[in-house]
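QA checklist item 7 of 12: single-chain prediction sanity check.
[x] sequence parsed
[x] length recorded as 210
[x] structure emitted
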Amino acid sequence: MHREEEFKGTTTIGLVCKDGVVLATERRAVMGTFIASREAKKIYRLDDMLAMTTAGSVGDAQQLARIMSAEAKLYKMRRDKPMSPKAASTLLANVLSGSKYFPFLVQLLVGGLNAEGPGLFSLDAVGGQIEEKRAAATGSGSPMAYGVLEDRYAEDIAVDAAVELAIRALHTAMKRDSASGDSIEVVKITQDGYTKLSDEEVRKIRGAFS
């Protein structure tokens, strides 16, 4: 298996909303042209109001999720407040930059909510960090997803509308990108907390786009 093949698949989406953040991914994992899994985990909860999406090497993504989850807990213990999305993405960027000669083969989105409001950041394999003010997508299906996001995203979008938009964008990407497919996972982070939509809720929304 070539690691460059492992890096190509997936579609992940992050949306900044007026009342929170929405993260969504499809669930297919591929090795070249082989579908290795139809239930791959690509959204990792790092803290109560903080999560990360992953595209790329599964092993690298899992290791980074473990590192960041531990760091978020330590941050909260030492400072008596949760790690902000910006702090988490900056720490993660430093980890990635420090490993650039043997890089983690990933593209990441870090999103969450704190007292300053919602935050969303995209990161590349060597630590490049960009704050996303609107919407972001990563992975091989991102060009198709961006077509939907650019057309329908509004700056004052509410979380529930953003959930529908994320599912629509993933549904579109999955039609044309062979490395993206199967089921969809969606998480919304608001003042009410971290909520993962059930498979039935996702299917009901997705059914309107079929």
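[x] summary fact logged: Residues 3-207 form a domain with the Glutamine Phosphoribosylpyrophosphate, subunit 1, domain 1 fold (CATH 3.60.20.10).
[ ] second reviewer sign-off
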